[in-house]
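Data availability (excerpt). The following record was deposited with the supplementary files.
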Amino acid sequence: MSLPLPNLDDHTYANLVEEAISQIAVEYPEWTDHNPTDTGIILIELLAWLTEMTLYRVNQIPDDNYASFLSLLKGEQWNLPINLSADERQKNLQSAIQNTLLELRQIYRAITPEDFENLVLVDWNQSKESDELKIARVKCLGQRNLAQSDADTFAKGHISLVVVPKNNNQVKDEENKYKPLFNFLDQRRLLTTRLHIVEPDYVSLTVEAELVLEDGAYTESVKEQAKTEVKMFFEPLHSEKYWQGQGWPFGRSVYLSELYKLLDDLEGVDYVENLQIKDKDKTTKSEIYLADNQLVNINIEDSKFTVVVEVGNERKEI
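Predicted structure:
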């Protein structure tokens, strides 16, 4: 990668000759012979050639100038190596330019939610301070103070980061757990920004359903597969084939229709009946609304998947 050369003058030899000849009628109307054999035309072509050569030199920026510009970008003096060949000096210069531009493009100051999320997932996770606190997921909510209020309450000047550690156990630990991360981001926030770091609010739910099997389906295998798929579907981190493996999206509500399809697609299941989702109070819901800072905590042990087979006109629970 190299800095593009500024084109200080884009006149070519042909442009210069054409413009000079077009001025003859204005400056000296008596001059009517504009053939290439005319002495005056030959002189114009010679001067145009010399001018083009001069313009070519004007458009060339010496390496020492590049070094001066590079020093301005770096904020410190940078000099070209002396005891190198021309090719090696050029390679050294281009390498320094490339590294400097990459450094300038790195985000240091956090302004937008994307800035905060990028700083946490990239810069923080690569820093030495994060050895004991790697962050797997983060959601930045602007104008929210989740340390004191819920996600539906606006708080001007406040930004809340909802973080999920890689060693996520869905149990909130000591209050100062995220102090190193806070100090890391505190140096990069705007002066008027009030920063808060919290963990997700997990919404507990259970699933109950009757699975009507196809002929010859293995009962226990279907039950285990149903538990595995539902658990994976609501997994906050490693959801594998669901949600691009990134985990249940922050704030995404839970719908019966999606669970119907998930269970109905299981091998050996003919169709699904009496599907219910229940909250922590065991209240049946047609859908469960999640706020922007919430994820799902599926209680798979309390979830019930009843297997039913049809024999003639009779249904038998297994």
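Summary of structural features: The CA atoms of residues 107 and 123 lie 9 Å apart.
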